[in-house]
């Protein structure tokens, strides 16, 4: 077994550059949330689709990291307690963090570049209901600065992209672990895999119901998050339908290396012990005296 105590530090050091890149992604994400988005032209005739009432979030922003990051990590740890594989735990956590952070950077980069108004933009811009426009017909907002800035970040939906990135990764992870595609036709396994995706979809629906996003924002965010989650998952794990889809590539690479060098430690510093259980067989030579030999065996003379 390769546990956190015995091999955790070695595995983490072998991916130190990946962890540095994660920190860099965190810094970029913070910067993207500080800078102002592009303030797109919004004319009076465009306000017909932007006069929806302002509402609170059904799913608050602080809840997104809990169900999209912490919940999957808890499930990863439960599987670690079962298999005791530091490869699986480390790579699943690393892949998940890459999925959500890459998705976050892509989402907020597009948000800032596009600057699409939210469905409730009118009330963000004109909280008293009195609208003003300049000589070119563009809005002259007199609402709160932070609400106006947030009102230009509709496309794509960040809640939805993060939800599909984290829960989509979890869905792929579960599909591999419970071997959904083992050709035995257990539909209950599919239900387990679809649960995280259903939760992510409901989060997306809530963004439209709360008038924070147009349906196109949610659709694009869902596709973006699921695509990034799939790409990050396949960096560390075989596809769920693969025969070895239950474990990370590193696990099987270490086993193969131990087979080729049974008397030496692998180059990456891991020693893999694989126990093979083989049934005991009695080899009976077949030939012209095979029937006599079988008779002797039955009589107990062999």
From TrEMBL:
<feature type="transmembrane region" description="Helical">
    <location>
        <begin position="59"/>
        <end position="81"/>
    </location>
</feature>
<comment type="similarity">
    <text>Belongs to the PA-phosphatase related phosphoesterase family.</text>
</comment>
<dbReference type="GO" id="GO:0006644">
    <property type="term" value="P:phospholipid metabolic process"/>
</dbReference>
<keyword id="KW-0812">Transmembrane</keyword>
<dbReference type="InterPro" id="IPR000326">
    <property type="entry name" value="PAP2/HPO"/>
</dbReference>
<dbReference type="GO" id="GO:0046839">
    <property type="term" value="P:phospholipid dephosphorylation"/>
</dbReference>
<feature type="domain" description="Phosphatidic acid phosphatase type 2/haloperoxidase">
    <location>
        <begin position="93"/>
        <end position="233"/>
    </location>
</feature>
<feature type="transmembrane region" description="Helical">
    <location>
        <begin position="159"/>
        <end position="175"/>
    </location>
</feature>
<dbReference type="GO" id="GO:0008195">
    <property type="term" value="F:phosphatidate phosphatase activity"/>
</dbReference>
<dbReference type="Pfam" id="PF01569">
    <property type="entry name" value="PAP2"/>
</dbReference>
<keyword id="KW-1133">Transmembrane helix</keyword>
<dbReference type="InterPro" id="IPR043216">
    <property type="entry name" value="PAP-like"/>
</dbReference>
<feature type="transmembrane region" description="Helical">
    <location>
        <begin position="20"/>
        <end position="39"/>
    </location>
</feature>
<feature type="transmembrane region" description="Helical">
    <location>
        <begin position="218"/>
        <end position="236"/>
    </location>
</feature>
<dbReference type="InterPro" id="IPR036938">
    <property type="entry name" value="PAP2/HPO_sf"/>
</dbReference>
<feature type="transmembrane region" description="Helical">
    <location>
        <begin position="187"/>
        <end position="206"/>
    </location>
</feature>
<keyword id="KW-0472">Membrane</keyword>
<protein>
    <recommendedName>
        <fullName>Phosphatidic acid phosphatase type 2/haloperoxidase domain-containing protein</fullName>
    </recommendedName>
</protein>
<dbReference type="GO" id="GO:0016020">
    <property type="term" value="C:membrane"/>
</dbReference>
<feature type="transmembrane region" description="Helical">
    <location>
        <begin position="93"/>
        <end position="110"/>
    </location>
</feature>
<keyword id="KW-0378">Hydrolase</keyword>
């Amino acid at each position: 077994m390769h546990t956190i105590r015995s091999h955790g530090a070695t595995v983490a050091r072998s991916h130190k550059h990946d962890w540095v890149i994660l920190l860099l992604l965190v810094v970029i994400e913070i910067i993207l949330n500080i800078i102002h988005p592009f303030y797109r032209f919004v004319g009076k005739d465009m306000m017909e689709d932007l006069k929806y009432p302002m509402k609170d979030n059904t799913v608050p922003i602080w809840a997104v990291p809990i169900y999209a990051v912490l919940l999957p990590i808890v499930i990863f740890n439960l599987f670690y307690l079962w298999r005791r594989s530091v490869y699986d735990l480390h790579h699943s956590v690393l892949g998940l963090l890459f999925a959500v952070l890459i998705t976050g950077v892509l989402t907020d980069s597009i948000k800032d570049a596009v600057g699409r108004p939210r469905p409730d933009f009118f009330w963000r811009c004109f909280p008293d209901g009195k609208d003003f426009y300049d000589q070119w017909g563009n809005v002259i907002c007199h609402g709160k600065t932070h609400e106006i800035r947030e009102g230009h970040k509709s496309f794509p939906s960040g809640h939805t992209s993060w939800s599909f990135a984290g829960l989509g990764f979890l869905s792929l992870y579960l599909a591999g672990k419970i071997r959904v595609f083992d050709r035995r036709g257990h539909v209950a396994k599919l239900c387990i895999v679809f649960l995280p995706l259903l939760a992510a979809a409901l989060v997306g629906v809530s963004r439209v119901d709360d008038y924070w996003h147009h349906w196109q924002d949610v659709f694009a965010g869902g596709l973006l998050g699921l695509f990034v989650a799939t790409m990050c998952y396949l960096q560390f794990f075989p596809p769920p339908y693969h025969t070895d889809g239950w474990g990370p590539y590193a696990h099987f690479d270490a086993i193969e290396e131990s087979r080729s060098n049974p008397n030496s430690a692998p180059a990456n510093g891991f020693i893999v012990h694989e126990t093979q259980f083989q049934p005991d067989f009695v080899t009976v030579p077949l030939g012209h005296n095979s029937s006599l030999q079988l008779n002797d065996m039955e009589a107990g003379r062999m």
